[in-house]
Write a structure and sequence with these properties.
By secondary structure, the protein is of the alpha/beta class. The chain contains 8 helices and 10 strands. The chain has a 6-stranded mixed β-sheet with strand order 6-7-8-3-9-10, sandwiched between helices. Strand 4 and strand 5 form a beta hairpin. Helix 5 crosses helix 6 and helix 6 packs parallel to helix 7. It is globular, with a radius of gyration of 18 Å. The relative contact order is 0.18.
Length: 242
Amino acid sequence: MEDNYNMAENIITDEIRRNHEPVISFKNAEIMNGESPVIYNLNMDIYPGDFVYIVGKVGTGKTSIIRTMIAENRLKKGSCSICGYQINGIQEKEIPYLRRKVGVVFQDFQLLMDRPVYDNLEFVLRATGWKDNELIDKRISEVLTNVGMLSKSHRMPHQLSGGEQQRIAIARSLLNEPEVIIADEPTGNLDNDTADGILQLITRINREKGTAVVMVTHNRSIFEKYPGRVMVCRNESCEELK
């Protein structure tokens, strides 16, 4: 049964690739870390429904790729498009609109510690143009339910465990129904059992909603247990593992 499921999933993915434009596309891109190139000639296409790992040793350019995707790092050579925006040449005023289409999950959660969970999520929605109080309340309830944290909406972040804080961070990434979730070592600060629960949550979102996922990790056991496409960064390049 499991083999049949995986086969069906692969067929669906192939069909999606044939009929859709990539949500992320790098063409001969030179990835920078500050003023220094760390990866040359990156070519990568990520489609709706893809689950892609970016792996490699420390300093091989994994996080620099992520920073390029969200327009924190600029391109000097090659091209990158994400969710319809061209990163090379993107204007400052366009960057907030790009980031509404991209959900980002960080290793260190990056929650606002001076306000409860609900207010953390409300802050993001209002910052991205939501104004109707009823719609805001409904959307917050939806994403907290999706990650199993609705009962914790009144809690302060410091009252939550690391795994609970990461679930809130994932809920935050889902608020604007992103086309892609970018996760930078999302389980790096969690114990193994908690990390496994977070990976199950992210893979469920990927399968049920068709949201593309790009995950940076150095943990081989993760992509062995939760298979996906694997991009390996090494020797100033990043290429797909076949």
